[in-house]
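Data availability (excerpt). The following record was deposited with the supplementary files.
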Amino acid sequence: MYSAFNLGRNAGKSMAIIHNMKISNPDAISQAAELIRKGGLVAFPTETVYGLGADATNPLAVVRIFEVKQRPSIDPLIVHVADPQSARLYGEFPEPVSSQLMAKFWPGPLTLVVPKKDLIPPIVTAGLDTVAIRVPAHPCALALIRAADRPIAAPSANPFGYVSPTAAEHVAEQLGDRIELILDGGSCSVGLESTIISLVGSIPCILRFGGIPAEEIETAVGTILRATDSDSIPQAPGQMDRHYATRTPLQVLVAGETGIKISEGERVGLLAWKRPLETAGYSVVEILSPDGDLREAAANLFAALRRLDASRLDRIVALPPPENGLGIAIMDRLRRCSTQNPALTMGGGPGG
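Predicted structure:
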């Protein structure tokens, strides 16, 4: 069963739920698909995070994604399709590497960046001649794409720059008064955005670390992937220097550092990827995985950051995970969230 939060465009800001109806899968998906076809916005679950979806072939609908998220137009979107055959309608996929990756990781948290076809309008790709495409693994996402019979452009369903949503309630709290429908499929199982690989050059390049460790992709294709540095113009989502950020200042400790000085009366939260040796003095403690399992830690990361951010803390301290496997993606998110990030020059919150 999925819940469908039916939201009014002019509703109030407190969750903004006019109608919360428990309905069967076909009814919920049918309602959402009709909205997509009519140019509306639907938030829906994937295995990574909740996406804010619109018909990728409808420029006016896609423009609303940028407006609702307050997302800069230079940041491209990911196009979600139901299967590899559909993907080939919208992009040019080089062989044999693309078929190897599709067979191993689709459906799943892998996005491929390839030369685009004309069916995808420039607003989706931020004017680039490449398009980012993936096949999500969540049954609700796949059912929505198939029922709508449209490719769905969908970034994370949150204000730009803020912590990504991994539950329907996260979407409702921040965007509920600005979109038509939220499909509630429970918590996201992966909890990190997809890994993004560019297949444009002669050697595959990692544009964003994510839900599939780079080592697994290298094993599948027999190639050592080149990681690219963030450009001033993003080539894929998630490449902004300041991103995935809490409004509460966050500091990432150096590996091996176990404690910090806490001033009298200061409220400090601790984010630990496994059970820490010492928690005395912290006002709130979030442990991503008691046993130090990186997959569990990744799945819990964004929800834990949101809880810490809502706890009226003066600052958050994060203990770094080991930088291997999914630990690389977790550290990527923490660094982009951190106030130690030298690229942080904006004032106020990270919602711009």
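Summary of structural features: The mean pLDDT is 86.
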